[in-house]
Amino acid sequence: MARLPRLTIPGYPHHIIQRGNNRQPIFSGTADYELLLNLIDEHARKQQVAVHAYVLMSNHFHLLATPETADGIPQMMQAVGRRYVRNYNLRQARTGTLWEGRYRSTLIQAERYLLACMVYMDLNPVRAGMVADPADYPWSSYLHYIGRRTDKLITPHPLYWELGNTPFARDVAYGSLVRAGIRETDKLALTDATLRGWALGEPDYVADLQRRTQRRVVKGQAGRPVRRTDDPSLIK
To answer: Where is the Transposase IS200-like domain (predicted)?
Structure first.
């Protein structure tokens, strides 16, 4: 079966995961983490991609981002991936691939899953046993969102601004969200949808996405495919 193209639609938040080959480490030290963040910042700006959140783990990383164009995220990820691997291999005197194939991504319904996705990402280091408090982990956007540092890479999504009328109120509200955690069902849904490339959201959201692309946005049901109502062949 032919591999489906990635689902990428401008103006919608995308959850992105890039893993290291065979789950091996993709960072050897602080300089590598800083290099990757700088490359993401550089190419997100070039490709008009707003990065809302990130977390860099030892053998993979997550991004939450909204592109202005259909090619924005693919071009950003291609440029970042190639330049990072070239620099990493040079520093480590190694050759060959670093990534586990192409990155995984999907669209998520902002109103339902955007803040949950941010919480899911910020709690990754805690779930992995790397820290007890996400504020102790330096390689995520969490510290930006609780007001402890300003991160040039981050463009907050409008839903974040709705958490409070002042920066302090938003910082406190977001910190409370992360302390409350994420439901297991949401965590599993976010992971599964991103790895499989299916859109994640309520039926109306999914239907709206499907009208905007020829690519299937969710897994089809068994049986004969349903014909789109705007199919030209249906017009008499």
So the answer is: 9-124
Q: If pLDDT is split at 50, 70 and 90, which confidence band does 2 have?
A: low
Measured CA to CA, the distance from residue 21 to residue 35 in angstroms comes to 19
Query: Which residue is associated with the tokens 């956007």?
Result: 141
Q: For residue 232, is it within any domain?
A: no
pTM of the entire predicted model:
0.90
The b/e string for 123-161 (b: 16+ C-beta within 10 A; e otherwise) is bbbbeeeeeeebeebebbbbbbbbeeeebebbebbeebe
The H or E element containing residue 67 is strand 60-67
* Boundaries of domain holding 44: 14-196
Amino acid at 199: A
Q: What is the number of other CB atoms lying within 10 angstroms of the CB of residue 33?
A: 17
| 148 within a domain of the structure (yes/no) | yes
Number of domains making up the chain:
1
pLDDT-derived band at 233 (thresholds 50, 70, 90) equals very low
Residue 43 lies in a domain: yes
What's the pLDDT score for residue 219?
Answer: 83
CATH code of 86's domain: 3.30.70.1290
CA pair distance 134, 126, nearest whole angstrom: 6
| 169 belongs to a structural domain | yes
Record the tokens describing residue 135, joined without a space: 């504020």
Tens digits of per-residue pLDDT, 18-38? 999 998 999 999 999 999 999
The DSSP line for 148-172 is S---TTB---HHHHTT-SSHHHHHH
